[in-house]
Amino acid sequence: MSSSLEMISANRSFGGWHKKYQHRSSSLNCEMTFSIYLPPQVDDGGKVPVLYWLSGLTCTDDNFSHKAGAQRYAAALGVALVMADTSPRGDGVADDADGAYDMGLGAGFYLNATEAPWNSHYKMYDYIVDELPALVESVFPVTTKKAISGHSMGGHGALTIALKNSGVYTSASAFSPIVNPVNSPWGKKAFAAYLGDDVAAWSAYDTVELMNQGAGKALPILVDQGLDDSFLAEQLLTDNLVQAAQANGVDAKVRYQPGYDHSYYFIASFIEQHLIFHAKHLVGSA
Amino acid sequence: MSSSLEMISANRSFGGWHKKYQHRSSSLNCEMTFSIYLPPQVDDGGKVPVLYWLSGLTCTDDNFSHKAGAQRYAAALGVALVMADTSPRGDGVADDADGAYDMGLGAGFYLNATEAPWNSHYKMYDYIVDELPALVESVFPVTTKKAISGHSMGGHGALTIALKNSGVYTSASAFSPIVNPVNSPWGKKAFAAYLGDDVAAWSAYDTVELMNQGAGKALPILVDQGLDDSFLAEQLLTDNLVQAAQANGVDAKVRYQPGYDHSYYFIASFIEQHLIFHAKHLVGSA
User: Fold this and answer.
1) For chain A, which end, N or C, has fewer CB atoms within 10 Å of the first or last residue's CB respectively?
2) Where in the sequence numbering do the catalytic residues of A fall?
């Protein structure tokens, strides 16, 4: 598997290394890029746990790599960061006919599509849950301990993936997540295309629905949501998460942050606290 | 002057505000953008000193705003950040005939051009030294205390501007600065176009030459330079700065950082130390 891994760039960062790779993905059936930050703790032959980061609509692995400032805290805490892309890529991969930003390329929604033409490449769930960690753990000096976080569509991905894989992730967190996509315009549009008209199938990829089905009883969750986020009322529906967690006894701390919006300025302002939250669980359960 | 100032965006960041503005520049004779970070210390009616940031070739005010992570330290230390653009902009502004990245748009070199066609807009020296601080100090809750820093071409700008304006800046710092442009390919190309063939005129915009002329005796300077910077040997010529500072009794601390390159990963890794350096002088001389 590692034989197809090609390094695109390597930058020294906070005493560690930020590296970007290209590889052939078997689950997505295309070439993919991802980035990894390896903290200085690996220099003496040590292994570190991993925080996976899932980005939002239109993003690649670069947005978080460039804008979040997370490397500083990963270096201090001894945690590796893995930044994934947001959809399959390449000439043969289907895209929205109108080039919409919220469907197709850059908008994989971290699910396994069942409908044509999407089902030949759009298997981001399998990629994030199985293929990418297997690759990372086979090549880099990391342990199998992992946590997951993300932003917006990637916050949806992080929460649903952690909820659906009990015991695999020590903790999950999100910034501005789409917590109830079956009731949001972004989610309805994407799920109808990727998963078809059977709405019952959608709930397998919905944070609120999964909690109502009993998932997440042993999963520590941290969510930050800006109160000046223009997507809050229509697309993100954060109050539905607060209610579902409370009704089902899920340990989810949801913090509304006055004045903050949907941007990476918001993520950068609070990513330190997310890294500390995950490090506590990653190390505590090591 | 403030009547022409138009806010393009405002993002909450580390308890303060990161704002981007457009305004008509009289010195550059075109519309310009800049960004300012106001830390939370201004919320109670207080005023804070300012660190001006000058970016490198091809950049705008956005690169540092998005990638350096400096807002965290500015918020902690109570310092405003002002990020400038790197050249005049707009349809009427001359650009390199071949669209080269190191001449014309995005490559103003923080000087006042004397040669046509550049001399009708390329007055970045006047803009950074006079017009922008006057505007900032008339509109925002800042004191007249200021320091200056920058990267690559912007490191050249920060050092030369501070050296040429004794007593105006409490301190100067730079990442990967072009310290001796009269002897570097980038500098020779730009200075010949902007300033003409009289090489004697070039030394007014050269850090090493200015130090050899006696400037900087009372200016604290901090420089970080990555040893894996691909521009180091041919373009940056950092050793010439070390020698000039030593020969002329200038208080310049030049640190070579093993493994680091020319990127914003390098800047992000050390910007905290630059902010602390400037805050010490900005506050100590208040």
Assistant:
1) C
2) 152, 229, 262
- Beta-carbon contacts of residue A193 (< 8 Å; ≥ 6 apart): A103, A113, A115, A118
**Is A43 within 8 Å of chain B by CB?**
no
Tell me which DSSP letter residue A10 carries: E
Chunk chain A into consecutive blocks of 10 residues (it has 286) and report each block's average pLDDT, rounded to whole numbers. 81 98 97 98 95 98 98 98 98 94 97 97 98 98 98 98 98 98 98 96 98 97 98 97 98 98 98 98 71
Counting the structural domains of chain B, the total is 1
Q: Is the CB of residue B72 less than 8 Å away from at least one CB of chain A? A: yes
CATH number for the domain harbouring residue A270: 3.40.50.1820
The structure tokens 């709405």 sit at: A199
Give the span between the Cα atoms of B45 and A153, in whole angstroms.
39
Helices (H) and strands (E) in chain A, counts: 10, 9
Chain A residues within 8 A of B263 when measuring between CB atoms? 11
Non-local (6+) Cβ contacts of A192 within 8 A are none
Q: Does A263 touch chain B (CB under 8 A)?
A: yes
Quick check: A62 and A35 in contact, CB under 8 A? yes
Closest listed residue to residue A282, CA positions, set A168, A176, A174: A168
CA distance to partner chain B, nearest, from residue A68 (Å): 8
Q: Nearest CB to B12: which of A11, A67, A259? A: A259
Given CB atoms, is A69 within the 8 Å cutoff of chain B? yes
Tens digit of pLDDT for each residue in B55-87? 999 999 999 999 999 999 999 999 999 999 999
Query: Domain range spanning residue A95?
Result: 2-284
Of B121, B151, B262, B281, catalytic: B262
ipTM of the complex model: 0.94
List the single residue in A12, A72, A269 with the smallest CB-CB distance to B13.
A269
CA distances from A224 to A55, A258, B218, B251 (A): 15, 11, 47, 45
Pick the residue from chain B with its C-alpha nearest to A270: B14
**Radius of gyration for the alpha carbons in chain B, expressed in angstroms and rounded:** 18
